[in-house]
Amino acid sequence: MRNFDLAPLYRATVGFDQIADLMDRVFASDLPQPTYPPYNIEKTAENAYRISIAVAGFAADDLTVEVKENALVVAARKADEAEETRSYLHRGIATRAFERRFTLADHVRVTEASHADGMLHIDLVREIPEVLKPRRIQIASVASRAQDKDLVDAKAVN
User: Fold this and answer.
1) What is the domain range of residue 68?
2) Number of folded domains in the chain?
3) What is the distance between the alpha carbons of residues 83 and 88, in angstroms, rounded to a whole number?
4) pTM across the whole model
5) Model confidence pLDDT, tens digit, residues 11-46
C-alpha cells in the first residue's frame, strides 16, 4: 500500500480542498474498483461530455439514472423472469444488477440519457455561471486615484 502526503497540496492551493479530499479518498481506498459494466467517457465538445455504458441484456425500463449530491448514479435491476423455462448451454451475457457512481464536478449538468443497441448514453454539459467566469480587472495608477479623490472632495466642499 502506498501512502502519499497531500499536505503540500493543501498549502499550495486555495479553494481546491475538494480535489485534495477526492485524492485522499482514492488513495485510501484499498477496495478493488468494480469493472462491471464497462463504460467510456468521451469529450464531445469544449464543455460537453458523454458517458457510454454497455448494458447488454437490459431494457430501458430496467435502468435508472439519477443525480444525487454531485454524483451521477446509474443502476440496473433486471425484472424477475421465469428462469426455469430457459436452459442455457453457455451464459456469457451478464444481466446482474449493478450500481455505478460517477462524481460530477461543480456546474456539470446531465442533459440527456438515451438507450440504443445495448448502450446507455448519458450526455453532460459544464455550464459555468457568469459570476465565476474569468474577468479582467482594470488597474488604476496611484496618481490617478489621488486626482480622483481630490476631485470628489472638491465637489463635496462646494
Assistant:
1) 35-132
2) 2
3) 10
4) 0.63
5) 555 555 566 666 666 666 555 667 788 999 999 998
